# Entry
Amino acid sequence: MALLVQEYLDRIRAEHADAADGALADYIPELARVDPAGFGVSLSSSDGFVYESGDAGVEFTIQSISKAFTYALALDRIGEVAVDARIGVEPSGEAFNEISVDETTRMPKNPMINAGAIAAVSLIPAGSADERFALIHDFYSACAGRRLDLDVDVYESEKATGSRNRAIAYMLQSFGVLDDDPDEVLDVYYRQCSLRVTTTDLARMAATLARGGSNPMTGRRVTTSAVVKRTLSVMVTCGMYDAAGDWVSAVGMPAKSGVGGGIVAVLPGQLGIGVYSPLLDDKGNSVRGVRLCRSLSEQLGLHFLAVSRESRAAMRAVYEPLEGVRVYETHGDLSFCGAEQVVRTVDREMRGFDVVILDVSRVDDIDDAARGLLSGMSKILRAQGKTGYVVDPGGIMTDTEAESDGVRFRTVDDAVAAASSR
Ligand code: GLN
# Structure
């Protein structure tokens, strides 16, 4: 069966295999030494199954894709407020290595351009540059599910030629954004950019974000869903530099590219994608990588804003097992919109029953907003002289009033029996 998906992937990759436009990044001599023909893609499902096509086993340096993960680590370690005090979240519309800060805040505009990424490195609390790099290295490795290696040649090459990044780091220091020694921070930044990954590593790192921060392969929770939400938000608006608008329109996934030729793309809750092709366009994004992602999105329907249908109805069935007793059976994942639908339906039909039984036994997941709305319902029912019961064998409505009222049942039959003997 996996063959079916494999064929899709091979076919979509083959559509772009012959394209040879773009150029290798050569601002670091070492980066120009890779095979320009390399072209691979990996796709990880949200439960960690990986499909690969082409050069999925070839290692290349992660480069700017690292920025998304170091930003996540900074958020994880010191929290959003402290990170926001140093790095903005506005798209810059500038090249990745622009020597610039926001005119009014004097902070880097976002963490996906070099200025913001260098600042993010400095926010990882550590006693030394080595310790800081170790934390970053561990974090990326935990997301990938294997220990990543450092490309020492690329690191040294980048360090030897990094005047522009040095300009940025010293500028940040002068604006009070960097507290630490700029050269030490840069050293860590160069090392993080020089970690080697394959497209499969990237797909797994993406899947870790798609899963809200837990690695589907290892099962390890790497960070929180709040950190992931913020990271993906910034990837949407700033991940592809000044091509972010084109990317969101055509591909529609939070993503990050690097001059090593890699792109990581995330479809929240669903999958992670890693692609590699080192020939870059003038914005520094992989030419074939962008095209491949575009085709994947179009042909597999992956655009995160595609509205293919109304979100699945929360109500599975409504029936009356006894005169005056009505059962509302819900299912799926209940969030605000689903709960709103339930509350409004019950409200509209209230004149037709004396007892309402809300059956949540088939609900997979419920969030606080939905729980709050549904538990508020029992109060309103009582005020109208009605009785509300909840069938909740799994206890997903725990802490609600329904529970403290003692009107929680394990089965609909139990609830109906209670209603008839009132
Ligand atoms: N290491 C590179 C730099 O700082 C990363 C750039 C990139 O991938 N866009 O210039």
Summary: The mean pLDDT is 93. The first strand starts at residue 40 and ends at 45. Residues 63-64, 96-97, 114, 158, 165, 193, 258-259, 284 surround glutamine (CB under 6 Å). Residues 139 and 302 are 27 Å apart (CA to CA).
